[in-house]
Structure formats: structure tokens, C-alpha cells
């Protein structure tokens, strides 16, 4: 069959990957139009020309994007050929000025592969030493293991000359030798000369030519076809071990995904029902695993939903409570005003007045307890955000069915939002309950007598000495540029000190910083930096580390910053309070109390501190329990028991289980690839057991060149 475009100038402008496959029937298929079988090979030629023009244009442009063509025929041997553009020196039409280098680069991409055989085609009427094909083949295959020489146009050589020395492998010898062919001329093609007649004419030429008669059996297109088939078989056998292992690893990587596709057939309603039930059930299992932290598939790249919620409960929420801790001067001033306002015109004097702290104490305590509402509600919001993120992560597995994913996400998120209101109401109720009765008989409450004697400095107890509170990587952001700029260290925070080491082995300690008189302040993120920064400084204006007044510590996210701040709070290192304005400062500095009032303020201050500590402890304990019961456990129960019913009521099964077009295509491609890999492995097994191979020719003896 004659189906490759022919003509003057550059005709092949895109690589053509041609797979010849032995078959009882004769037809052709293109990869870019899979569903169509071509039985008329004139149409094949027209399709090659049209597909070339579609990518490269009609004015001689080129492209490295290949055309894939399969030809099934009883007249071919199994073979894969790549027809590459010929090397052109002078640009024509739309071709760029560097057309020669573009074509050479394109050819190099294909012939550089170790798995390819190189067919170096050179016309006989050209000096072999100037052959671009041989020169390029020599660059990528210096040993000549992959190169076969082909000499064309033997019938067009000047009279009295021949290519006998070349074909006998004496001139520029190749390890695999040269094969001569005689193709149809342009006149023969224009005259529709049959290929069978052309092959007979080629055979007659070699048998009748005195220079080639003795090697006629090793010349011609049929012999080239057999040699290529045999050489390709040899080459495949040599590369089989690595090819087999590569295919097996690809097959193993696909098996898990293919297993999922085996469980579902789009046209089977019973399969749809089963798949829907399985997916909803799996969604519930995934959600529970992410919250509870159980299961065998543990995420090692980032914290899952449950771990994040735990951090909110035990680090972020306590941090928010401490952040709203009252300012000492403001609190004392409020206490003094409360005492004075309670007595009204009957001011207490040193000699006559009796001190009754109950009303003042209750007024101040209630004011502090009301402040708990904001961090408590913020805690609920943070947990809700994590729950919704967890739902989205779990529904990502439903991506094959967009409607099912969308409905599942909507239904569960709506339920979470409904529970949000009830949870917040319950938490506000807890705080209102605390406000309704101030229990001064609580066993942990210090009482009036102890409050008068207690030293205010003792109420901020540190954790157990030497107790390790946290370990982790942090970047010191403000080391001088001369010393390398910012640098990452392994930090260990205990109840008494902050130490940093070279790495997590904790063998090479860089420095140990005592926590006395340290506080934390926020630092603005740098313009070019994606790190989030906070600083540690000494309240007595001393250097913290070497010549630094503060150490700037950087984390990858604001969440990490808040988490570290919460850890520092546990160690007794508190955030810096916002500086009051000058006017307020003047008022505070000029505010003075008589000694008796000062003692009363101190007593109530101690009482307030003790009782608020009890409330905080209670709230810190009840908050996680309330959120777990009313929101998280309730959502888990909803997913397991009610989600399916809501899905059925929201849409019919067919629309829920309608695959996305991308997913259907992906499934088809995946299954096709899977079966192709299995078939390839079977073929490799057949090749390795039944194929006869010939040894690679020995290296060429070119000593005659040196003697001549």
C-alpha cells in the first residue's frame, strides 16, 4: 500500500509514528480519531496531510508533535517505525531561520533513546562522508550498536560508478552494515506504478547489476524489512528485563485505582445503589477516622481534623482566655471605684468604717466572667471551621460523582451550622449559670481571711520545674546578615528556660535562655517573607541573646505562632499588653489611694483572682465536653444514621450517581492502560520464550583503512 505523502521539498513536517501489525484484515487507525477505521489508504494519506497542516499550517512549518498511525495488514511484519523530517539547510515558506537546528533537535529527541534503532538513510549519489544521518547517528551511538545504514537511489548513480565498497561495509564501516534499496521515482509515483511491480523491478536491478549480483540476497526492501524485524526483536529481548520491571511497577500502581472502578458500572442500577451505599458508608468511616484519629491510614504530612480540634481545645482556647486577662492597673482602679460606689455617701474611714467586700467582689467577678463569652464563642467558630474542612477533605473521594459530592457536603455542612446555634446557646447558658450564683463556699476558693494575707506575686505559679512543655523547629529571624541571616534551630521549652539546639538529637546546645522577666510581642511579617513572626524580649530592657534586645522567632503559619504562644503561656511567659495612651497613663500615675482602701483593693483583687481562676478551670473543662457532645458526636451520629435519607430526599439516585465526563474518560483511560499493560506483559512473556534472536555483529575490523 502507498499511503505516505510524497513530493518535492520538505514533505514530512511532523514525526509519524507508524506501527505495522500483522493481521488477517487490512485497515488503518489514527490515535487522534480512535473510532474511525480507514480501509482506503488514499484517505490515510489525506488524513496525514490534513493533520500535519492542522498543527503546522499549510506553508512548510514544522512541529515535534507526532502523528500516531497503526496499520493492520497480512502483508507486513510486526514493526514500529518513526518517519522523521529530512534535514533542510535553507528555510522556505513560513519556516524559521533556524529550521536546520530545529529539525536536528527534533531528530535527536528520538534517536537519543537507548531503546530505538537508528535507520541512517543516505542517497548513493552523495558522498557518504558528508552524510548528516550518519554523522548524527555517530553522535548518539558511537559504538554503532543501534545504527543500520540504508543506501537509496542506487539506480541514479553516474554510469561507471557503484556503491559496492559501501554495501560491502568497507567504506565508513558500520557494525550492523549497510542495505541497498531502489525505490520508485517520482515519475513512477505519478504514473501510479504498483508497489509489487516496484519490488519486482528492484529485485531485477540487483540480480542484473554486475557490482551487486553477488550480494543480491542481502539487498532490497524485503530484506531490509526482515533485518529490521529481526534487529528490533533482538533489541527488544535485550531491553526486556528493565522493560518488564517498569511495566510491572506501572501495573501495580494502577491496580489499586482500577479496583475502585471495578466496583461500579454506569449502566447498572443495582450497582449504582450499592456504590451509593458504599460511598456514604465510607464517607462516615473517613470522617470518624479523621476526628477520632483511629484507623490504619494515618496522615503523616499534616494534622488531621481531630488533632487540630484537640489543639484548639487545649492550646488555642486557653491562649484566648489568657489573652483577655485583665490589666492590673485597670482592675485595681475598677475595684476601688466599686468599693466607693457601694458605700456611696457613707465613705469608709480608717477609724469608723466596716469593710464588707461581698458586693464589690461580685460586681468585679461578674464583669470578668462576662468577658469569657467572646473567647468561648471564638472557640466554637474555630471548631466549626475545622469540622467543615474535614467534611470537604472526606468528600474529595466522591469527586467521581459531582452531584453526590455537592449534596453530601451541603447536607452535612447545613447540619453543622444548625448545631452551631444550639452549641453557642448552651455555652452562653453555662456562662449565665456561672453569673447567676457566685459560690464563695467553693473548696478551691481562698476565702476572705486568706485573701488579706496572700501576696499577689504568688498567684502566677509556673509549671513543675524542668517539665518539658514543647519541642519543635523555629527560625531565629534576626541573626545578623554577617552570620548568615535567619537560621533554623530545634527549640526545647521547659517551665524554667528556652533552649535551642543544632538539631532534634539535642546533643549540640546553642544557648539556654531563662524565662524570668520575659514577655512575648507580635512582629509584622516582612514584605518579602512568607514566615509568621513573634518576638521574645526582657521587660527590664536587658539583652536577651548576645547583642539582641529581642529574639524574633518565625513559623510557617499563624496557627503555629498561636500554638507556640499558648505553650509559652503555660510556661508563664505572657504577651505584652497594649500600651495605654499618654493621657490614661497620666491619670493612672496620679491615681492614689489611702492605705485602708489600698488594703481593701488588694483583698478583693486576691478574691477575684482566685474565683476567676476557678471559673476558667471549669470553663476549660466544660467547653470541650459541650462542643464534643452537641456538635462533633452529634454530627457523627447524623452522618451514620440520617445522611442517606437526606440524600434520597434531595435528589433521585440516577442524578446523584451521574459520573462527571472527566471521571468517565479517566476511568476508560485507566482501564485501557491497565489492560494494555497486562497484554504487554503477556507479549513480553511470549517473546522471551518463543522468539529466535541473532547475536549482535562483532565490532568492525577497520585496520585496512589504516594500511591504505
Highlighted features:
16 strands; 21 helices; 5-stranded mixed beta sheet; 708 residues; PH-domain like; single chain; elongated; Four Helix Bundle (Hemerythrin (Met), subunit A); Rossmann fold; alpha+beta; 3 domains
Secondary-structure map with pairings?
Layout: E1 16-22, E2 27-30, E3 33-38, H1 41-56, E4 67-73, E5 79-83, H2 99-111, E6 118-123, H3 132-140, E7 147-152, H4 164-167, E8 178-180, H5 186-190, H6 195-208, H7 221-262, H8 269-292, H9 305-323, H10 328-343, H11 358-370, H12 373-395, H13 402-436, H14 447-453, E9 468-476, E10 487-494, E11 497-501, E12 509-514, E13 518-523, E14 532-538, E15 550-555, H15 558-570, E16 574-575, H16 582-590, H17 595-641, H18 643-650, H19 653-656, H20 661-690, H21 703-707
Parallel strand pairs: 1-4, 6-7, 7-8, 13-16
Antiparallel strand pairs: 1-5, 2-3, 2-4, 9-10, 9-15, 10-11, 11-12, 13-14, 14-15
Helix pairs in contact: 7-20, 8-9, 8-12, 8-17, 9-12, 9-15, 9-17, 10-11, 10-17, 11-17, 12-13, 13-17, 13-18, 14-17
Amino acid at each position: 500500500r502507498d499511503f505516505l505523502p510524497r513530493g518535492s521539498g520538505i514533505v514530512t513536517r511532523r514525526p509519524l509514528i507508524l506501527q505495522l501489525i500483522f493481521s488477517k484484515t487490512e485497515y488503518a487507525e489514527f490515535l487522534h480519531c480512535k473510532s474511525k477505521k480507514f480501509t482506503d489508504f488514499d484517505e490515510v494519506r489525506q488524513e496525514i496531510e490534513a493533520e500535519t497542516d492542522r498543527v503546522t499550517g499549510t506553508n512548510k512549518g514544522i512541529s515535534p508533535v507526532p502523528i500516531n498511525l497503526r496499520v493492520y495488514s497480512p502483508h507486513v511484519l510486526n514493526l514500529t517505525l518513526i518517519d522523521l523530517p529530512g534535514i533542510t539547510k535553507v528555510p522556505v515558506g513560513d519556516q524559521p531561520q533556524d529550521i536546520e537546528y530545529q529539525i536536528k533537535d527534533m531528530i535527536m529527541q528520538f534517536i537519543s533513546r537507548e531503546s530505538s534503532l537508528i535507520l541512517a538513510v543516505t542517497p548513493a549519489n552523495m558522498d557518504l562522508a558528508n552524510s548528516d544521518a550518519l554523522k548524527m547517528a555517530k553522535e548518539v551511538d558511537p559504538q554503532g550498536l543501534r545504527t543500520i545504514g540504508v543506501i537509496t537511489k542506487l539506480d541514479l548513480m553516474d554510469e561507471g560508478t557503484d556503491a559496492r565498497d559501501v554495501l560491502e561495509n568497507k567504506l565508513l564501516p558500520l557494525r550492523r552494515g549497510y542495505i541497498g534499496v531502489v525505490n520508485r521515482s517520482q515519475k513512477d509515483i505519478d504514473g501510479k506504478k504498483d508497489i509489487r511491480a516496484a519490488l519486482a523491478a528492484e529485485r531485477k536491478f540487483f540480480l542484473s547489476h554486475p557490482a551487486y549480483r553477488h550480494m543480491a540476497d542481502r539487498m532490497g526492501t524485503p530484506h531490509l524489512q526482515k533485518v529490521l524485524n529481526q534487529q528490533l526483536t533482538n533489541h527488544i529481548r535485550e531491553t526486556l528485563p528493565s522493560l518488564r520491571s517498569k511495566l510491572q511497577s506501572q501495573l501495580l500502581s494502577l491496580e489499586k485505582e482500577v479496583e475502585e472502578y471495578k466496583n461500579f458500572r454506569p449502566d447498572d442500577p443495582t450497582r449504582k445503589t450499592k456504590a451509593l451505599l458504599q460511598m456514604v458508608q465510607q464517607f462516615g468511616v473517613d470522617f470518624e477516622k479523621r476526628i477520632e484519629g483511629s484507623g490504619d491510614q494515618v496522615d503523616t504530612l499534616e494534622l488531621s481534623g481531630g488533632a487540630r480540634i484537640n489543639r484548639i481545645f487545649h492550646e488555642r482556647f486557653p491562649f484566648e482566655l489568657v489573652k483577655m486577662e485583665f490589666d492590673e492597673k485597670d482592675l485595681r482602679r475598677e475595684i476601688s471605684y466599686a468599693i466607693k460606689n457601694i458605700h456611696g455617701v457613707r465613705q469608709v474611714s480608717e477609724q469608723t468604717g466596716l469593710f464588707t467586700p461581698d458586693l464589690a467582689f461580685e460586681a468585679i467577678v461578674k464583669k470578668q466572667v462576662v468577658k469569657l463569652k467572646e473567647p468561648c464563642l471564638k472557640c466554637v467558630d474555630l471548631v466549626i471551621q475545622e469540622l467543615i474542612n474535614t467534611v470537604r477533605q472526606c468528600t474529595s473521594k466522591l469527586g467521581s460523582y459531582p452531584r453526590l459530592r455537592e449534596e453530601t457536603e451541603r447536607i452535612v455542612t447545613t447540619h453543622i451550622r444548625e448545631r452551631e446555634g444550639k452549641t453557642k446557646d448552651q455555652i452562653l447558658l453555662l456562662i449565665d449559670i456561672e453569673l447567676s450564683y457566685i459560690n464563695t463556699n467553693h473548696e478551691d476558693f481562698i476565702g476572705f481571711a486568706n485573701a488579706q494575707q496572700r501576696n499577689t506575686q504568688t498567684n502566677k505559679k509556673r509549671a513543675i520545674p524542668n517539665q518539658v512543655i514543647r519541642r519543635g523547629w523555629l527560625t531565629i529571624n534576626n541573626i545578623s546578615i554577617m552570620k548568615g541571616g535567619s537560621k533554623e534551630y530545634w527549640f526545647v521549652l521547659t517551665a524554667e528556660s528556652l533552649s535551642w539546639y543544632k538539631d532534634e538529637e539535642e546533643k549540640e546546645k546553642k544557648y539556654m535562655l531563662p524565662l524570668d522577666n520575659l514577655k512575648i510581642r507580635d512582629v509584622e511579617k516582612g514584605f518579602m517573607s512568607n514566615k509568621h513572626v513573634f518576638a521574645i524580649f526582657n521587660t527590664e530592657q536587658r539583652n536577651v541573646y548576645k547583642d539582641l534586645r529581642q529574639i524574633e522567632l518565625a513559623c510557617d503559619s499563624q496557627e503555629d505562632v498561636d500554638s507556640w504562644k499558648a505553650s509559652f503561656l503555660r510556661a508563664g511567659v505572657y504577651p505584652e499588653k497594649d500600651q495605654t495612651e499618654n493621657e490614661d497613663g497620666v491619670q493612672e500615675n496620679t491615681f492614689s489611694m489611702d492605705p485602708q482602701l489600698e488594703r481593701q483593693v488588694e483583698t478583693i483583687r486576691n478574691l477575684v483572682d482566685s474565683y476567676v481562676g476557678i471559673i476558667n478551670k471549669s470553663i476549660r473543662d466544660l467547653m470541650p465536653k459541650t462542643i464534643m457532645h452537641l456538635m462533633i458526636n452529634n454530627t457523627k451520629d447524623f452522618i451514620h444514621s440520617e445522611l442517606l435519607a437526606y440524600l434520597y430526599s434531595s435528589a433521585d439516585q440516577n442524578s446523584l450517581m451521574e459520573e462527571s465526563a472527566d471521571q468517565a474518560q479517566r476511568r476508560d483511560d485507566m482501564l485501557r492502560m491497565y489492560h494494555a499493560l497486562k497484554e504487554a506483559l503477556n507479549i513480553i512473556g511470549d517473546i522471551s520464550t518463543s522468539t529466535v534472536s541473532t547475536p549482535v555483529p562483532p565490532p568492525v575490523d577497520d585496520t585496512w583503512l589504516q594500511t591504505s
